[in-house]
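[Automated response] Your request has been received and processed.

Submitted sequence:
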Amino acid sequence: MSKLKLQVQISIDGFMGGPNGELDWMNMDWSDDIKEYVTALTEPVECMVLGRKLAEGFIPYWSSQPTEEGAEKINNTHKVVFSKTLEKSPWDKTTIASGDLVEEINKLKAEAEGDLIAYGGSEFVSSLIQENLIDEYHLFINPAAIGKGLPLFGKLGANAQLKLIENKQFECGIILAHYLPLV
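Generated structure:
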């Protein structure tokens, strides 16, 4: 069975975005060492899962930037967008999933030969975490505290125990915390 990895940037105080989704605190000037890590992380990925809100900006952005570093992988990888409002995909290489989140993710894990990676906003990612669907956490911690915003673990109903596998400081100031869930 394939693994579902989560790759997300968060503030040092655990937020994925400001109260209205602001990302102005996020370090977007990545150093070569973080780019190499992300390339290695996404190399075995055959499917990206996204929430609709992120997909509406993420997919068109990368489609319009075909020469930007990482765009080829993103644009050529199959994407599944989870949505209760979209009936069909307006994007290439993308399908819509509107069924039960747990059933849909488990079906994708069972059918995929490579790994899956999750990108999404706080609501979608928090739902994946709440349902214990994440197999690996790759948290990119930005050196910024924002005080309030959209939390990574916003729907957590009980303690989530994680085991640290790796931590690393990148030249740009972002710190990686790679965890596995203890289930």
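Summary generated for your ticket: Residues 52-64 form the longest helix (13 residues). Helices lie at 32-42, 52-64, 71-76, 101-111, 122-130.
If you did not submit this request, please reply to this message.
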